[in-house]
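Why predict the complex rather than its parts? Because the way molecules touch one another can change local conformation, and only a joint prediction can capture that. The input here totals 400 residues.
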Amino acid sequence: MTTPSLPIYLDYAATTPVDARVAEVMQRYLTVDQLFANPASRSHMLGWQAEQVIEQARRQVADAIGADPREIVWTSGATEADNLALIGFMRANRERGLHLVTSTIEHKAVVDTAHALEKEGFEVTWLTPGQDGCIQPDQLRAAMRDDTALVSLMAVNNELGSINDIAALAAVAHEFGAAFHTDAAQAVGRIPLDVVAQQIDLMSLSAHKTYGPKGVGALYVKRHPDIRVEALIHGGGHERGMRSGTLPTHQIAGMGEAFALMQQQYDEDNAHITRLQQRFLRGLEGVEGVFSNTPLASAENRTEKRAVPNILNVAFEGVDGESLLMALRDVAVSTGSACNSASVDPSYVLLGIGTPRALALSSLRFSFGRFTTEAEIDHALMLIHHTVSGLRSPPRQAAD
Ligand SMILES: Cc1ncc(COP(=O)(O)O)c(C=O)c1O
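Output of the joint prediction:
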């Protein structure tokens, strides 16, 4: 087997490379000899043609989640979609109530937005997940109040890969007359998403977690019954008044193509990634003191799907995660959320599921993707074995 080129990229949950087929589509909408016109230009054919490109991408994204294209609002990414969902919904539905329910292990795009809402006078209940990283429907039911306007719980956790039962959670929210938002940035292409079957009212999406470009995403906003969202960005009234700003045709066409490819390759991608995950887990068996923070299928029920196969959060007992990260410079991984990598605080997500502080500080997130190879997994394992035993072995005595 040939040695893979270094560093080996095992940080697909932070971002994925743009698929070459997506990049090829994006290149059609930039230069003077191409379709670069403003899709909002109504006065010439080039504008209408660019608008058609946008509408085709809108259909591709809608198809991927079982939505109507008119329910897709383009944003700059899932962060903006989360802001629009939480702030936009709570402000537009004050008469429904001022109470929001979310969890302590949401992405910062939801956590910080909920804190901002608290400062604005809204009230937030913070649910604590179990050790499996999931919120149980009964737990949510106990937190619901007459004035709960919105529940926001993520579909797949970005650090653990744990999967929430969003259909069951949405059903509880609806029992109490509240709307249900889910951040599905890490879920697209990893678990089936269908906004109708799962009864989702608002869903945040991102292109760059699914082989599309960075800087573009979308918010699904249900039409029947109509979910009202107040704009955060004002301007030309684009996106039915919910999000103004000239639409970036190349970015949006890229997101559409990436989501269409995701649908075509869903089984193939997941089979490939599951094989890699199994290989990686087998390889780690030989390393002592290794624990998975990611909830894996139990030995009794191998088919049980508790986490997505592309994310594996692993604790190396007695090894400092930052030192491991430094020593493992030929493997690009993360000590939790990429946004927190500059900080030495343990991951709030790991602490949030009850991981002891020391073990949280010894944890790394490995994430695989479409372009990861078995040779890369094997080489990364070899480097991990070597590095972990090096960091664990006692320092040599100085010579007399
Ligand atoms: C669960 C989750 N939500 C939101 C985001 C933010 O997405 P974007 O980079 O598109 O703003 C991320 C990416 O890190 C994520 O993993």
